[in-house]
Write the structure tokens for this entry.
Amino acid sequence: MATHLFKAFFEADNVLVTQVFGPDKAKLKIFSEKTQTTDSYDNLSEADVYLICVKDDVIEEVASKIPFQHKLIAHTSGSLPLLNPKDHPTSRNGVFYPLQTFSKHTEVDFKSIPICLEADDKHNYQLLKTLAEAISEKNYNISTAQRKSLHLAAVFACNFTNYMYRIGEEICKENHVPFDILHALITETARKATLDSPSKIQTGPAIRDDKKTIETHLNQLENSDFKEIYILLTRKIRLLSSKRKNKEEM
Amino acid sequence: MATHLFKAFFEADNVLVTQVFGPDKAKLKIFSEKTQTTDSYDNLSEADVYLICVKDDVIEEVASKIPFQHKLIAHTSGSLPLLNPKDHPTSRNGVFYPLQTFSKHTEVDFKSIPICLEADDKHNYQLLKTLAEAISEKNYNISTAQRKSLHLAAVFACNFTNYMYRIGEEICKENHVPFDILHALITETARKATLDSPSKIQTGPAIRDDKKTIETHLNQLENSDFKEIYILLTRKIRLLSSKRKNKEEM
């Protein structure tokens, strides 16, 4: 996250990245060609905003070590609330949460990434909004409760989805079929979900209640984990289908 | 499927769509401005290839009603084998299976859709390959067994994936968050799966074995169906994670 955010801000016209802090000197190297870096809280520079891009369980600790008062400190966590003002009485608090899946070696186009913002007052919110607008075309005012629900929704839409791809890949491998053949389908399935509500475009044997195909698939599935998942998801999708039918009949 | 295939072939330079057959006159209307149509087997035109784009359980019936001999008949099903030569002694048989999710009202770019081909001899295969190349950049020689496994893999990579999106959408709705915020994540998750193996890029609390986040999510989930799915998929992904650890330790 830090690497991607740095890159986006570095390229933005109206934002100056004064310094990058991190405890591991080796990891600071990639930033050091472009800006100041430090691994010591004592050498932290003064700045308008401090963005904390660390794991959830060390955010509090990092925030409490920033040696300046009345500065805006924003974390980038999907699941944590604003810092508790009781614990951080001399700071101003915000959240700057880009909702995206980041990997170190894949470039991302920040422009299309929605940034969820929250702050303890209007002025601080505006400052975060300015930052967000410098790197992305989309920002949203999102409360902690909403952000937590987005984080949970993202587990389904991203983490579990990737696991579905992984099962597809495994089935291809077992049958000596290149996984590439599924790429177009994966891309199109995602594209459709951004054009229409996924609840309206469910396809496949489960929603059609196509018992014959479902039975064939269950016979094909040798991996018991995949079979268990197929059975559960098919059952849940069929529930939707029968709910829909009941509604239509009413 | 028929509509999309027609459109692609109609626009191709070296393919002539002689006629479209269908039992429902009203549904033939959209084709009738551009080619001959008929709802009667008696009026079927002679052609080099007959493409059957109907549900699996009526393919046999439609094929048996084609009143010409020694013509190449290809179905477009993901799960059925070549027509049985005993039942169709006077026809030549093939499969022309574009692996994609089609919906009536969404345009698709056929060029990127992989077409899985199978035929009862080399000459017939070559004829189907020529057809495939006229509309798509990708075609594969795929046996019935491989095609069946692709069809099953597609249930995970497309149907179940869309269901994951649907759950994400539902969670957003319940929490008054626009589902749009997840669009960039959905698109990027799909893109990453086409750049690297999904087995290598699994992210999220389950693979990290982040018990605290998993517990928070389970407390958030009010819908018992979604909870059951979260629990099962998390358990399965954690199994992968522990298998990986065991391997690394060895």
Summary: The mean pLDDT of chain A is 93.
